[in-house]
Amino acid sequence: MPAWRCTILASLGLFVSTSLAWAERPDARRQLEAQGLRPRGNTWVVALEIELRKRLDQLDQQERVFYPVRDQFRTTTAQYAQAKTQLEGLLELARSGRIRLKKNSLFGRERQQLESQIKQYDQQASQLEKRLQEELNLLDEHSAFTRSVVQFANAQNALGAYLLALQRDCHSAEQWYEPLRADPQIALALQAEGVQLGPLEPYARRYAGRFARLAREVFADGVPFYRRAGQRRIPAILNERIPATFSLADTPGPTLIPSSVAQAASIRVPDDAPTRRLGRLQTRQVRLPALRFGDRVFRNVEAWALPPEGENLGASISPTAFAGHTLEVDDQRLWVRIVPTSDSLDSAAFR
């Protein structure tokens, strides 16, 4: 065969093989895209990782919102504690004055001066105590003090739930790719493209320090509280996912949650669950896998789901749910600590 024909045939073979290779690449790419994968440089990632990276980027903004609210809460509670100390001082001065009146034989001008001082202390104490009580019980829009506490409780709860979700996903990122790595067709497509599967980085290890720092802020030793209609209101995280606020009863009773809250926390309310009458309402028994208050987490908590017509009652909890534990209520710092007296509590559960 003439040399020129050999050259033509060789060129034709190279053209065909190159064309076939280029034809394979779009098919491989489409196959990866059909699996929900998207390119990030030389790495193809799942949509869950793309969303995770967006939420990690938004963590800075979450912190910028949280810290000013926290600082305002600290300032407010410090002012409240100072006022309480002032009140106690006035009451002590009045008490000491009365003791002097009883023990000493005071007459005339000196006695009148002391009686006048006691009366003045009593009036100041009464006015200050009334103001403090009004501040505690007024609605948010009428009390800067209460508004500060409510805003901090909400911000702390929101950031806590956000943090728990990030931690879960950072630990799950590698698992998202396990079924894809086991698929031989995906392996061939990756090879044809000359690319690799995610994740883009070891998220759990990279963010461990930052998560631990934030956990110390939002999962503190106790939770703030405020008052509504004479009841303390405390923040919680339900099922490690949903921020919620519970009314804290002083006497034993059932734990109640609205059905909408149970649904948001992915807690199923079985139709055949045990029932319990609450006035005209019929509640159904559920189990809360986790109920978090600060750094304390209760597991498998018995609760009763309210029907839709009982939504306005809101969530409530009583000392019954804290069996084996003591509630230490600090009315001066507006803080509640749950102190274990048994080993039924999973503490420092940010893992």
Would you write up a description of this structure?
The protein is α+β, with helices and mostly antiparallel strands and 351 residues long. It has 2 domains: 188 residues, Helix Hairpins, CATH 1.10.287; 127 residues, Beta Barrel (Cathepsin D, subunit A, domain 1), CATH 2.40.70.10. The chain has 9 helices and 15 strands. The strands form 3 sheets. Strands 5, 6, 7, 8, 9, 10, 11, 12 and 15 form a 9-stranded mixed beta sheet that branches. The chain has a 3-stranded mixed beta sheet with strand order 1-2-3. A 3-stranded antiparallel beta sheet has the order 4-14-13. β5 and β6 form a beta hairpin. α1 crosses α7, α3 packs across α5 and α5 packs antiparallel against α8. The termini are far apart. The C terminus is likely disordered.
Can you lay out the helices and strands and say which pair or pack?
Layout: H1 3-34, E1 38-40, E2 43-45, H2 47-57, H3 59-103, H4 108-137, H5 144-172, H6 178-181, H7 184-193, E3 196-197, H8 203-218, E4 223-224, E5 226-228, E6 231-238, E7 242-248, E8 256-258, H9 259-264, E9 275-278, E10 281-293, E11 296-306, E12 315-317, E13 325-330, E14 335-340, E15 346-347
